[in-house]
Amino acid sequence: MFWNRRKKPFSIVQSYIAALNDHDAAAMISLLHPDACLVDSRGACVAGYEDSVEAVHAFLALDAGFQMHIDSYAMHGDDVLMRGSIEADDPRLATNTLWMARVQDGKLRRWQSFGNADSVALAHILVPDKAHREEVPMAKAF
């Protein structure tokens, strides 16, 4: 029983990554929580379901060669921490990265990238009029 509960966030995150690597917008969107928050490596946030859907479509149109490769996972409650790399046609996107995903009510509630200081401000590229700095202090975000 408890093992099954711990596995579910991991399975949802794996499904989201598989959909992203397959460039399957419908599958990615089906996994988004109504209060989804997508945060790029610069701390810019795209919040809410409709804006997140728009960001997913813009993201998939950005780089046809984008592939996420996860080297390791760790779980803490409903949070899944990942380390890996990105393969992309755009060299600005191809990098080693850390990610954190939070699952709530069986859906992806939060996706956050942690890159180096010169990471692309992806949220501002994807949906410039909707991306904003997150107001929640880091301690409350986790």
Q: What features would you describe in this structure?
A:
The protein is α+β, with helices and mostly antiparallel strands. It has a single domain (2-130), classed as Nuclear Transport Factor 2, Chain: A (Roll). The chain is 35% helix and 35% strand. The protein is built from 5 helices and 7 strands; from the N terminus they run ααββαββββαβα. The chain has helices at 2-21, 25-30, 49-62, 122-126, 138-141; strands spanning 32-39, 44-47, 67-76, 79-87, 96-104, 107-114, 132-133. The chain has a 7-stranded mixed β-sheet with strand order 3-4-5-6-1-2-7.
Mean pLDDT: 87
What's the CATH C level?
Alpha Beta
> Sheet with the most strands?
7 strands, mixed
Q: Order of strands across the biggest sheet? A: 3-4-5-6-1-2-7
Short description:
The protein contains five helices and seven strands; from the N terminus they run H-H-E-E-H-E-E-E-E-H-E-H.
Element layout with pairings:
Layout: H1 2-21, H2 25-30, E1 32-39, E2 44-47, H3 49-62, E3 67-76, E4 79-87, E5 96-104, E6 107-114, H4 122-126, E7 132-133, H5 138-141
Keyphrases for this structure?
disordered N terminus; Nuclear Transport Factor 2, Chain: A; seven-stranded mixed β-sheet; disordered C terminus; 142 residues; alpha+beta; 35% helix
